[in-house]
């Protein structure tokens, strides 16, 4: 979410977090570029320092063609809306707006993009809306980081993630620690999942690279 108005950022963040969304924020277009890789939906203000929302939309389309983009702007004329949509935005909301409407539109963009609200991998179920993980129907006591890490892996079964890439996605690009923090959280997750690292059902170590979620989780 990118806006140079801290009040708008705060209001939307509160509403989105109330719906269990993890929100990344930037106040200018250039800073936002570093966050796009971590996003499932991008919300850009039109008038931004350094790189406008329109320019940012063009860059997002070049880098991540499947990323849904919503433009927020005080420019409500039809020509402006058409310009934003023709540039590549998927949705366009004029200011002043209802935060509840923005949240509803975010949900619609996620559905349209095929982002599932419940991930199922054999006996493991992850609800993205309620942030509840269950194994064989029993809720797991996961920390926020553990849940976010597990969802990141489970959303892309078979994809190999480096530790550095996982840190960017889960901890954020400004995390000051080392990538070895991933190993600690993976160890914790395996304990919660009763997942034997030598014969993993869920999370597999890719030596010299990182980790992946198994694509063929048995039931």
UniProtKB/TrEMBL annotation:
Entries under InterPro entries matching the protein: CheY-like_superfamily (IPR011006), OmpR/PhoB-type_DNA-bd (IPR001867), Sig_transdc_resp-reg_receiver (IPR001789), WalR-like (IPR039420), WH-like_DNA-bd_sf (IPR036388)
This protein's UniProt keywords: DNA-binding, Phosphoprotein, Transcription, Transcription regulation, Two-component regulatory system
Protein's UniProt keywords contain Ribonucleoprotein: no
Residues in Response regulatory domain copies: 1-110
Positions of the DNA-binding region: 116-215
Swiss-Prot/TrEMBL GO biological process terms: regulation of DNA-templated transcription
Organism domain of life: Bacteria
Annotated Pfam families: Response_reg, Trans_reg_C
Residues modified as 4-aspartylphosphate: 45
Domain OmpR/PhoB-type: 116-215
Coiled-coil positions: none
SUPFAM superfamilies: CheY-like
SMART domains listed in its UniProt record: REC, Trans_reg_C
MF (Gene Ontology): phosphorelay response regulator activity; transcription cis-regulatory region binding
GO cellular component: cytosol; protein-DNA complex
Keyword Lyase: no
Descriptive protein name: Response regulator with CheY-like receiver domain and winged-helix DNA-binding domain protein
Species, as recorded: Deinococcus peraridilitoris (strain DSM 19664 / LMG 22246 / CIP 109416 / KR-200)
């Amino acid at each position: 979410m990118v806006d140079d108005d801290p009040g708008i950022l705060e209001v939307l963040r509160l509403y989105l977090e109330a719906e269990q969304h993890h929100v990344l924020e930037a106040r200018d277009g250039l800073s936002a570029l570093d966050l796009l890789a971590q996003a499932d939906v991008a919300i850009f203000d039109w008038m931004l320092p350094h790189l406008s929302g329109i320019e940012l939309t063009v860059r997002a389309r070049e880098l991540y063609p499947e990323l849904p983009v919503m433009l927020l702007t005080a420019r409500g004329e039809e020509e402006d809306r058409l310009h934003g949509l023709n540039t590549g935005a998927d949705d366009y909301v004029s200011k002043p707006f209802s935060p509840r409407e923005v949240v509803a539109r975010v949900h619609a963009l996620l559905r349209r993009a095929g982002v599932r609200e419940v991930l199922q991998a054999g006996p493991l179920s992850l609800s993205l809306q309620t942030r509840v993980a269950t194994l064989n129907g029993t809720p797991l006591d996961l920390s926020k980081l553990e849940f976010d890490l597990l969802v990141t892996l489970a959303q892309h079964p078979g994809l190999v993630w480096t530790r550095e890439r996982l840190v960017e996605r889960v901890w954020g690009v400004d995390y000051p620690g080392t990538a070895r923090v991933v190993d600690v959280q993976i160890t914790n997750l395996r304990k919660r999942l009763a997942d034997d690292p030598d014969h993993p059902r869920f999370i597999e170590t890719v030596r010299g690279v990182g980790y992946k979620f198994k694509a063929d989780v048995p039931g």
